[in-house]
Amino acid sequence: MMPNRVIFRALHCAIAVVIFFALNAYGSINGSVASENVFEGAPFPFAHSSSIVELPGGDIFCVWFGGIHEKSSDTSIWGSRLSGGVWSKPSEIANGAELSERRFAAWNPVLWIDPGGRLTLSYKIGDSPRRWSGYFKLSSDGGKSWGQAQAYPEAFLGPTKNKPLVLKSGRTIMPSSFEFHSSFGWHSHFELSDDCGKTLKKTGFTFNPLVQSIQPALIERKDGSIVALMRTRNGYVGASVSKDGGETWTPARLLDVPNPNSGLDAAALSDGRFVMVCNPLPERRNKLSLMLSDDGLKWRESIVLDSGGIHEEYAYPAVIQASDGKIHITYTRNHTHIRHIALKPGDIK
Questions:
Q1: Which residues of 76-200 form beta strands (DSSP E)?
Q2: 3-class SS of residue 192
Q3: Would you place residue 9 in the very low, low, confident or very high pLDDT band (cuts 50, 70, 90)?
Q4: Whole-model pTM over 0.85
Q5: Do 204 and 213 meet the contact criterion of CB atoms below 8 Å apart?
Q6: How far is CA 185 from CA 147, 158, 159, 209, 231, in A?
Q7: How many angstroms separate the CA atoms of 56 and 142, rounded?
């Protein structure tokens, strides 16, 4: 007769296998119009923190940072263009060597098109998030060439992970944050410009130690109010709302969506719904899901985009809706690849 502990271990393994396949079957992405790595084979072993934008004409441009490892001084900002269903070979766009004799790591690139129609790349340079500085580059030819690196004004960082929100008024709201080890910990804020970035001002909400947040994602509702969804240290997604174009924000609160201290992104769909891509787990980042909402605050899981064992990691997503209606998602897969998925709005239920 088999010992009880052997039987228990066998049952435990069997249950784990069932759960694994159930997660992969639930909300399958079989209906996706694309699911592939942005690159195969690259001059860097580590890749992380992607951002995407739709270019005039419908091509998709993706950026990320890559190097030996996350804090390595050799990390650079890399980019690739999706045209005709094919991703271009990754090319280097920015690095720390452009800015000083001592080269520092490049981090967290963010892409968007500003109110003047310029493709903008924002990124960070430094040896850690506590000591990095914000820079940006502009392109007038869809990312084929880039201007010189420019620094944000002192005390401003630009967007720390997610794309800015450009309002109909032309105002740009950049979701930003600082990370400290002090008693103030992590804290999100917003950097506003009404003149294509020539001048900036900072707004935000009162610091709350119960909602220590960074890396906001912004969505605009039909009534003009703006919801900021945030990564937190407190076990759940944080949220704050502005009803005056980003001038003032409600106190941050926690939503009923687990967050294992992991980055997220969100987008407003043309049909009035909202999507958020995140790791809806109390710990670890081994499941990435697309969440759906009608108001930007109450969320339900719609599709499991990727899942695996406890040592797998699928994280730091970016999401946009293109002009043809498709929802494009990129994310870090095990810190070696950037994965791209495209969905039709009808597949999201």
A1: 76-83, 86-87, 91-95, 106-113, 119-125, 133-139, 150-151, 165-166, 172-179, 186-193
A2: strand
A3: very low
A4: yes
A5: no
A6: 35, 19, 18, 8, 13
A7: 8
